[in-house]
Design a protein that fits this description.
Radius of gyration: 17 Å
Strand order of the largest sheet: 2-1-3-4
Strand content: 5-15%
Helix content: 40-55%
Shape: globular
Length: 196
């Protein structure tokens, strides 16, 4: 499946941003895998067996061994199949992990509040993330770890804007982040890991 005798399976849910994040990492790495859709209202014994702690998706199964939690899965994929998503430089790698944790802990946890940039912390984070967009990708000149983290969100930006009638990223408040979101959406068009 993945090459070299590796077997990869992904337990997921089509609408999950966290599953999409793993699909993006697998796609950027050029890895094939078997996708198994899960019903979270009627959890399978397979899901409960592979993720008995959280009982949720995504779960990557590599040669029969489960790896849970999307950020951990993305890092595992990067380490197991040739590191290219995380920067080689230790400081840059730490900064990528910091921002990925920030995205999960702050932006994703309070999506609507954060995207409007109500608090000073959120405004400062938007500014710094926007300034990170001075390079073609957040990881530098090639798709990297932060692009995978934000890429899962980028696919839902147009839908969220249509549903709630507001721009999530705008040129006046965060011009580089707006450009980066557009760039990531364009980069994903070549990927088969897009939300419907």
């Amino acid at each position: 499946m993945a090459g070299g005798g590796d077997e990869l399976k992904l337990l997921g849910l089509w609408a999950s941003l966290f599953v999409l994040r793993v699909k993006l990492a697998l796609s950027f790495k050029g890895l094939s895998y078997e996708y198994i859709e899960e019903d979270l209202y009627n959890k399978s014994q397979r899901l409960l067996g592979y993720n008995p702690v959280h009982k949720k998706v995504p779960v990557l199964i590599h040669n029969g061994k489960p790896v849970c939690e999307s950020q951990i899965i993305v890092q595992y994929i990067d380490e197991a199949f040739g590191a290219t998503l995380l920067p080689a430089d230790p400081y840059e790698r730490a900064m990528a992990r910091f921002w990925a944790a920030y995205i999960d802990d702050k932006l994703m946890a309070s999506w609507m509040k954060s995207i409007r940039g109500k608090t000073e912390e959120e405004k400062a984070a938007f500014k710094e993330l926007s300034e990170a967009g001075k390079k073609p990708f957040f990881g530098g000149d090639a798709v990297g770890y932060l692009d995978v983290t934000l890429g899962a969100v980028a696919g839902w930006v147009p839908a969220t804007e249509a549903l709630y009638g507001m721009r999530l990223f705008d040129a006046a408040r965060s011009p580089l982040l707006e450009g980066a979101a557009t760039q990531r959406t364009e980069a994903r068009k070549g990927s088969s890991s897009q939300p419907p």
